[in-house]
Amino acid sequence: MENLKEIGERIKKVRKELGLTQEDMAKKLGMSRNSIIRYENGEAVPSRKFLKLLEYEFGINPRWILKGEGEMFLPSDYEKKKQELTKKGKIILRSENKNFKDIVIDPRDFEIYIKGKVEALYLKF
Q1: Which residue of 42, 65, 67, 83 sits 20 to 30 Å from the alpha carbon of 111, by its own alpha carbon?
Q2: By the 8 A CB rule, do 36 and 21 touch?
Q3: CA–CA separation, 76 and 71 (whole Å)
Q4: Which of 118, 19, 14, 5 is nearest to 103 (CA)?
Q5: Torsion over CA of 57, 46, 38 and 14, rounded to 10 degrees?
Q6: pLDDT tens across the length of the chain (125 residues)
Q7: Interior CA angle at 121 toward 118 and 125, to 5°?
Q8: Are 9 and 68 a contacting pair, CB within 8 Å?
Q9: Is 67 helix (H, G, I), strand (E, B) or coil?
């Protein structure tokens, strides 16, 4: 495990990123403000329960808190589903237009031949 001060700094960064005071975070997690202060100051090792609460309540990556690895926030359910599909050999077409959703295509169902440069594919759901 990394230095407790570094872990505390990451916990503080999470709290500030979420726009919470120590008191607000403590209330949301059902903990005492003192616990939050001790974690942020590097005076205590974050408990497994605290890390699970951060993950469940705010989508915080426990590995990032403890080791600084990965992203602060875990991927959303949508992002997780996209990662699963990609691992299963699915093709995901992404639209740059925020009004349109990504399209998932199973290569067994569709044959896609792309000749030249494809400028954009927009399908609205």
Answers
A1: 83
A2: no
A3: 12
A4: 118
A5: -40
A6: 569 999 999 999 999 999 999 999 999 999 999 999 999 999 999 999 999 999 888 889 999 999 999 999 887 765 666 566 666 655 555 555 555 555 555 554 444 433 333 333 333 33
A7: 170
A8: no
A9: helix
